[in-house]
Amino acid sequence: MSPELISILVLVVVFVIATTRSVNMGALAFAAAFGVGGLVAGLDADGIFAGFPGDLFVVLVGVTYLFAIARANGTTDWLVHAAVRLVRGRVALIPWVMFALTGALTAIGAVSPAAVAIVAPIALSFAARYGISPLLMGAMVVHGAQAGGFSPISIYGSIVNGIVERENLPGNEVVLFLSSLAANLVIAGVVFVVCGGMKLRGHIAAGSRAAGAARVGAAAPRSAGLRTHPTPATTPSTESTNLTPPRIATLTSLLALVVAVLVFDLDAGLTAITLAVILSTTWPEDSRKAVGEIAWPTVLLICGVLTYVGVLDEMGTITWAGEGVGNIGVPLLAAVLLCYIGALVSAFASSVGIMGALIPLAVPFLERGEIGAVGMVAALAVSATVVDVSPFSTNGALVLAAAPDVDRERFFRQLMVYGGIVVAVVPAAAWLVMVVPGWG
Questions:
Q1: What pTM did the predictor assign?
Q2: 248-256 long-range CB contacts below 8 Å, 24 or more apart?
Q3: Dihedral (C-alpha) 411, 412, 417, 418: value to the nearest 10 degrees?
Q4: Of the candidates 379, 389, 390, 365, which has an alpha carbon nearest to the alpha carbon of residue 428?
């Protein structure tokens, strides 16, 4: 049995044990990385740790630390009330506002995880307060980020278009952008309906100017913040709507995080943890418990799994699988398999990195003209990024870590199941719509 096949089978065993024995998958993955990396691949400790996602570790810790402080001093409550006022209390519009906001951020140049890190904690705080499914809200944030992620001036768009140009392939920046926008918009619409978004229509958030003016026919979510019959508006408490000095400082810190990431291209994790430390030093009473609220089990889970994926990359398992598909003599079959490999691997690893590896593998049969290059690149881009809602990807991990007041194990399983459905369905759909017609 080849080392590459052994490494894949061990990954399957890790999933099975974590699912059936309720052991943290990250801890299992670290053990698997040590065993497979040392015994099968002959890697030393440096080789095994080469895949440890240090940047993601800092992002997860920094962002959840900063927003734990924001929750403690009431800043997230203030932001939620501001969002309610923005849409005049119409709760069903909030997920779409978050979708549009993250899409706008990535379209103008924000890295997708940075946009999700900024928006997800606010969006999920709103979901917790008003009884909206965290899966719905998290998916809307991630798919919004990917909807704008391939604009001609975006990070993803610039990288993929650069790869296409380097490989001397025909390209179309507008088609690439619109393909991702349309795919994520359709998926968001489906998720909105399936996860109960339609039941939110007519719900008016308590405390909004419109509260008490609408009749609501659907059953109320669990939160007491929604009115299900005409009653006088309940004004939010002064404590939740006043801007106190700690809240002003926290809002300033959140704005500074946005500016630092979008304008000065600073690391989101390092910036967030620095701002959190400043707030903690100034108002220690509000942040005393914040470190304990960092999503440490999620950090262990994500870092462990990605370290094992790094071992797979070091020993050539990913390249081995991609080359095996690329050598298939039927171009359309090879194309759909490459889309599936892109989706599956990207659920655990860098989306851009996977596209950078798979697009060159497609070059031999694209050069023969049997498959349109524009459609193939668009299908690979969509397949490799829509799966970022997986809890093992950076965006999915940020959503999982940012959700307050949830059963985190249950939410993790929901994200994993949803990510699995996306991996199973979207590559085939993208292939059918973008590759089979022969675009480009």
A1: 0.71
A2: 249/279, 249/282, 249/283, 250/69, 250/70, 250/73, 250/75, 250/279, 251/75, 251/78, 251/79, 253/66, 253/278, 253/279, 254/66, 254/70, 254/75, 254/118
A3: 70
A4: 379
User: How far, in Å, CA of 180 to CA of 147, rounded?
Assistant: 5
What the block records as the tokens of 252 is: 């300033």
pLDDT in tens, the chain (440 residues): 788 889 889 988 887 887 677 788 889 999 999 999 999 988 899 999 988 888 878 887 888 888 888 888 888 778 777 777 777 768 888 899 899 988 988 887 677 887 888 889 889 988 888 888 999 999 999 999 999 989 887 778 887 888 788 778 888 889 999 999 999 999 999 999 999 888 887 666 555 544 444 433 333 343 333 333 333 333 444 455 678 898 999 999 988 988 887 788 888 889 989 999 999 999 988 777 788 878 788 788 778 888 888 888 888 887 777 667 666 767 888 889 889 988 988 887 667 667 776 777 777 767 777 788 899 999 999 999 999 999 888 899 899 988 888 888 889 999 999 999 999 999 999 999 999 987 76
User: Residue 8 has which token pair?
Assistant: 């894949």
Is residue 348 a contact partner of residue 306, using CB atoms and an 8 Å limit? yes
User: Which helix (DSSP H) or strand (DSSP E) does residue 5 occupy?
Assistant: helix 3-21
- CB distance 143 to 151 below 8 Å: no
Two tokens, residue 174: 């507008």
d(CA 35, CA 18): 17
From residue 314, alpha-carbon distances to 3, 51, 320 in Å are 12, 8, 11
